[in-house]
Each structure stands twice: as structure tokens, then as C-alpha cells.
Design goal:
- The structure is a single chain.
- By secondary structure, this protein is an alpha/beta fold.
- The protein has a single domain (about 10-65, about 80-135), classed as 2,3-Dihydroxybiphenyl 1,2-Dioxygenase, domain 1.
- It contains three helices and eight strands.
- Strands 1-4-3-2 form a four-stranded mixed β-sheet.
- The two termini are about 15 Å apart.
- The relative contact order is 0.17.
Length: about 140
Amino acid sequence: MSTFAMNTVCTIIPALRYRDAPAAIDWLCSAFGFERNAIHPDGAGGIAHAQLTFGNGMIMLSTASDDEWGRRIVQPDQIGGRETQCACLVVSDPDAHYAMAMAAGATIVDGIKDNDYGGRGYSARDPEGHMWWFGSYDPWKAET
């Protein structure tokens, strides 16, 4: 481990862009159980910056736009539904979470199942195609 990493306090917070960020916020809260922490409208019907929490974790999101930052990020439907990363969230009851997501109309990619490496989980896409994984496997507590 590098000296920098050992001496640095760090929290990793994924940041996403959505074409319809207000609708994405509503959906992520109802389907996946996120909670609104801070919402900053952009004055044009979109979101300049939002923070949604999930337990002690957080994501940030904003409305996709053709600005300097936005030109570095593509939406999943622009690259054939593929992703370059997937947010993984640890939940205490993956079966109940799966049922909540299904009831909200989440597109399930991998159904709920026990994993070879431990825990139980599933993956799903949100309405704009971003991939999410939810499960009970906690790498901080897993035996190595």
C-alpha cells in the first residue's frame, strides 16, 4: 500500500449524470431506497448537483449537459447499454431489496442469487440504463 493511501482519509462517492435528473432522483429513492440529502436545481428544470444517501454511503448526480465535464461522460444507451463501472451497495436483506426494486419496475439484469464468493445479491438497471448491484456480500467483513 502506498504511503499516500495509508495516510489519507478518503470517501469514494460515485457521480452520475442523467438526462432527466429530477425523475432519476424520484426513481432511485422509490425503487432502490436512496434518500435525498441535498438537491440544487440548475434554474432550467434540471439539477446542478444532488446528493443521495444510502446508509452511510452517498452518490452525487446532476443533469447531463453539453459542458466540459459532460463531454467526458456518455450515457449507457450511447454505448450499446454497456457500462465502464457499476456501483455496488451492501444491503442487509437483499431479497426484500430485490422485491422493492422489482415492484418499482427495475430492469433486472441478474436475478437474486447466492454468490460463489459469499453473500446474496442481484443487479439491475435504472430507467436511464445505469447498472447497480445490491447484495449482502460485504468486502470489509469478508474473510480473505
